[in-house]
Write a structure and sequence with these properties.
391 residues
């Protein structure tokens, strides 16, 4: 099993900009305003990030959603000023999302960081982003002038769910009817497009030759918790409803290794459940930040019913026979509450004969984390002869 871990680094000492501000004694409001305008925040150095907020308040906190909970750290007011600061130890080459909580007049106001232009969106809104020392956004996730693929609507009549579903499909640039391409079924595909730059990333990866031209089914459900966690009807929908609908319009590849399931969080659970329920139909799995519980002793700290449903699913998988020849990319964020569980998942699959690459980043349960892992995941499952995945 291939395992890739994030780099570790730390340093000590105050940020020079803060030291410079304080060198002449207590700064005036004008000097604080000039300091805030002159620097990009948070102030980044190897191993550290310094956050700032300017204004009058009773207290100011930074909130991160890490390790399965809400992590609050107070900013400290510089005496006799309206400047609040927090110097936070971080790992290099990573990122995390956060908000500021401003306490005023007995209440609290949650806000993005007004001094930080880096933002990330998800279905619940927008967060500020801390990019730590050495992190660079993958250039293939940015517009590069690559030939653009197109996204079309696919109507799926579903006897499994007794309804008609409207899905979308990504077709690569230059695609013609009758052309056979590898198929990637992407759970929460619309969200990947909206929050994880999916279309431009696929365009760039295909044009660069990092992955072959693919057809991607961008599936979406109104009930992720119910449909993905239970899994059985969803798996039937993919195999008995979606694949025939795709085959009626586009050629579906015959080889299992050219059929891939991709998902993040509960989408990873649905992907794995489908592969086990229909062995030999799909030969590739890209599982990002899966909401798995392999050690049931941890359920005491996971009261939400969805984790108990997933635990029952994992028990069934442990009783199931080995998967036919399959490659799986498993990734996690070190700041997630289920990082250890995804390591355990990688080991579980490896012990059942799956060719696994596990990769970890110093990041959280966020769409940009899943975006950043896209290239390595697709290369691992679609280009099995090129096993050296670069970070």
């Amino acid at each position: 099993m291939n395992i890739q871990q994030p780099a570790r680094h730390a340093s000590s000492g105050a940020h020079p900009a803060v030291a410079g501000l304080m060198s002449g004694g207590t700064p005036s409001k004008a000097e604080v305003a000039e300091f805030a305008a002159a620097h990009a925040f948070p102030l980044i150095e190897a191993g550290w990030a310094t956050f700032a907020w300017v204004g009058d308040a009773e207290s100011v906190d930074i909130v991160r959603w890490i390790h399965g909970g809400e992590d609050r750290r107070p900013l400290h007011r510089l005496p006799a000023t309206n400047l609040w600061l927090l110097r936070l130890a971080v790992e290099d080459g990573g990122r995390f999302e956060y908000k500021l909580v401003i306490h005023q007049d007995g209440g609290e106001h949650w806000t993005v960081d007004p001094l930080n232009r880096a933002r990330a969106a998800d279905p619940f809104g927008e967060n500020s982003v801390c990019l730590t020392f050495g992190y660079t956004r993958p250039d293939w996730s940015l517009p590069q002038g690559a030939a653009a693929g197109r996204v079309e609507t696919l109507i799926v009549d579903s006897p499994v769910f007794a309804e008609t579903r409207e899905e979308r499909i990504y077709l690569p640039a230059g695609y013609t009817d009758g052309q056979t391409c590898p198929l990637v079924i992407i759970h929460d595909g619309d969200d990947f497009v909206t929050f994880a730059d999916l279309v431009v990333s696929l365009d760039n990866l295909i044009e660069a030759g990092d992955i072959p031209p693919i057809v991607a089914a961008l599936i979406q459900t109104r009930d992720r918790t119910g449909e993905y966690a239970r899994g059985r009807r969803h798996a039937r929908y993919l195999v008995e409803d979606l694949l025939p609908a795709l085959a009626a319009r586009h050629l579906v590849p015959e080889r299992p290794e050219d059929r891939v399931l991709l998902g993040a969080s509960l989408g990873a659970v649905a992907s794995l459940a489908t592969a086990f329920r229909y062995p030999g139909v799909f030969g590739g799995l890209v599982l990002k930040s899966g909401s798995f519980i392999l050690d049931e002793r941890k359920l005491d700290n996971r009261p939400h019913p969805v984790f108990h449903q997933v635990a029952r699913l994992v028990r069934a998988l442990k009783r199931a026979p080995q998967l036919p020849k399959t490659r799986a990319f498993v990734s996690t964020g070190e700041l997630e509450g289920l990082a250890d569980e995804n390591r355990a998942l990688a080991t579980f699959l490896h012990e059942r004969g799956v060719d696994v690459l596990f990769k970890s980043a110093w990041d959280g349960h966020h769409w940009h984390n899943w975006r950043d892992q896209l290239r390595d995941g697709l290369r691992w499952v679609l280009k099995p002869g090129e096993d050296q995945i670069k970070g």
